[in-house]
Fold this protein.
Amino acid sequence: MEYIEPHAHMVSRVTDDYERLALAGCVAVCEPAFWAGFDRGGPEGFHDYFRQLTEHEPKRAARFGLRHFCWLCLNPKEAEDLTLAAEVLALIPQFLERPNVLGIGEIGLNKNSRNELRVLEMHVDLAARHNQLILVHTPHLEDKLKGTRLILDVLKNDRRIRPERVIIDHVEEHTVKLVLDRGHWAGMTLYPETKCSPARAIDILETFGTERLWLNSACDWGVSDPLAVPKAALEMRRRGHRLADIERVLYHNPRRFLSQCPKFRLSAP
Ligand SMILES: [Zn+2]
């Protein structure tokens, strides 16, 4: 079965992971801009990172027949420094026309601080001005619910933003309905240790349905599993879900959302 990995930080993964993804049926991998695990020294570090996401990773993926797409932003973990944020945001427009860039992400909140909120608003404004899709990270700390509410309000307060062009990622049982009720898409992240296990994610699908939902591994430099999505498909099979329903969540849903960006194509360039 073919599937799409809509959220993976491949710059931190080895090339063998691309091969494993391809062997498991993955046809496209989408990489939001993220924290490197340490704070970058300045805007030059982000400039090089954006080049890596738009020039180098698509080539690494193409060796295994995989399409690689990315999202650009300054991640919430480095958003405390407003000067750095302004400098990095000024770099982004020159990359937006590149062929594998899908939009602005993963923006959002980490500790729900005032500066993080300000930088979130700056990113939403950037996306609106350049008519970009948005991918949002929600906090993993105990205040996920509060952070999700704050993010939803920022999006609602900007009248230029169309809710169906925004995906809110890392939803859990207590946030998924809020997100879907606002007309956004919702992403569930499958992690071996924190966030959703495959069993929890499929419980959520069984409770809330499969409309406007997708699954991702969000694999990065930490403990994570690039094959979490196909493993969730196995769990769905085990529970007796029909193949067509599994394909809807793993392939057709991400394709539908991402195709709102005309650059999202699954055939070879
Ligand atoms: Zn991520």
